Amino acid sequence: MANKSEYEKKKPGILQWILFILIPLILAATIALIIMVAAGIDVGGFAKKYANQVPGVSSLVSEEEKESGDVEQKRLTAAIDSRDEQIEQLESELEAKEADIKDLNEQINTLNQQLKAQEEEVEDTASNAINDISTSFQNMEAERAAGILANLEDDTALAVMEQMSKKTLGEILGEMDADEAARLTNAYAAEETQ
């Protein structure tokens, strides 16, 4: 009996059991977990996979996933809303730019019409001036007209010659120096054939 009481005295208690068995097991599991994470093993995914199979724990894990899914959905919705606002802003800027382009095209058309009108006016003025000069040459003496015509620029001289009657032109060319008359006649003939 003495042995029995000694054994009962030495009987391991709960504290000793925790100290010698449970703490080393927790320590070994922690070290194993650290080694697996360092090795690149997805311990969290592995734990979720098996936790979903346990009835009480599966509801906790799926709630966590739902919460993370809700957060992700809110983030994505906010990103989509932000993109939609950017799209609307860019579309309004595009409409403004298109309106500006339309206004500028209208201004270009207006300016082109004004330019065309001014060119026609200049042509009419030049044509009237050439007609006036031609009439003046036809009314003056052939010798004097020949001297003036010989000193004009070729383009102007040819334009005046085109407006004269053939008889008056012949009289004026007859009064010119032969070389000058030949040069103007050749230029006039080339102009007439075009």
UniProtKB/TrEMBL annotation:
<dbReference type="InterPro" id="IPR006668">
    <property type="entry name" value="Mg_transptr_MgtE_intracell_dom"/>
</dbReference>
<feature type="domain" description="Magnesium transporter MgtE intracellular">
    <location>
        <begin position="136"/>
        <end position="192"/>
    </location>
</feature>
<keyword id="KW-0472">Membrane</keyword>
<feature type="coiled-coil region">
    <location>
        <begin position="73"/>
        <end position="132"/>
    </location>
</feature>
<dbReference type="Pfam" id="PF03448">
    <property type="entry name" value="MgtE_N"/>
</dbReference>
<feature type="transmembrane region" description="Helical">
    <location>
        <begin position="14"/>
        <end position="39"/>
    </location>
</feature>
<keyword id="KW-0175">Coiled coil</keyword>
<protein>
    <recommendedName>
        <fullName>Magnesium transporter MgtE intracellular domain-containing protein</fullName>
    </recommendedName>
</protein>
<keyword id="KW-1133">Transmembrane helix</keyword>
<keyword id="KW-0812">Transmembrane</keyword>
